Amino acid sequence: MVKANRALSNTLVGRRTTNVVPLAELPRLVRATLWIPGPPVDAEVVLHRLQGQNQWGRVKKWLVFHHEVKPETASLDNLFVFGFGMDAAKIIRGERAGSTTCCPPST
Predict the structure, then answer these.
(1) Which terminus of the chain, N or C, has fewer Cβ atoms within 10 Å?
(2) Spatial separation of the C-alpha atoms in residues 67 and 1, rounded to whole Å
(3) How far apart are CA 14 and CA 11, in angstroms?
(4) Backbone angles phi, psi at 19, to 5 degrees
(5) Residue 88: which of 76, 79, 80, 100 has the closest Cα?
(6) Rounded to whole angstroms, how far apart are CA atoms 62 and 91?
(7) What DSSP string runs through 61-104?
(8) Complete DSSP assignment for 21-49
């Protein structure tokens, strides 16, 4: 059975040795919730607009965890949940030296 599994494994990965990264070593994503009032908007359009307004990062590489259109009032509301890396989170928070934050620090 071990020989069969090894043969199948070598066939599937093209005879290359593969390593599995432990879960603890995988990068964690930060989640951000964004609410946009108005008619339904596609997530790709929102990411494109955010990239145009934030030249500091690769917004188009953000992941869309959730998109929901809520009819809360007479107009519709868009609720997005995005995921992005810690590097983008540090820039947004103003923690990276020389970064341009999205929001000016409160005084």
Answers:
(1) C
(2) 46
(3) 5
(4) -115, 140
(5) 100
(6) 14
(7) G-EEEEEEEE--SSS-EEEEEEEE-HHHHHHHHT-STT---SSP
(8) PPGGGSPPPEEEEEEEESS---HHHHHHH
pLDDT tens-place string over residues 33-68: 998 988 889 999 999 998 988 777 788 789 999 999
The structure's pTM equals 0.60
Q: For 26, phi and psi rounded to 5 degrees?
A: -70, 140
Both tokens assigned to 49: 């607009």
d(CA 19, CA 14): 14
**Percent of the chain clearing pLDDT 70 (strictly above):** 68
User: Cα separation of 88 and 96, whole Å?
Assistant: 9
The amino acid occupying position 24 is A
Element of type H or E holding 6: helix 2-12
Residue with tokens 């919730």: 33
88: Cα separation from own chain's centroid: 10
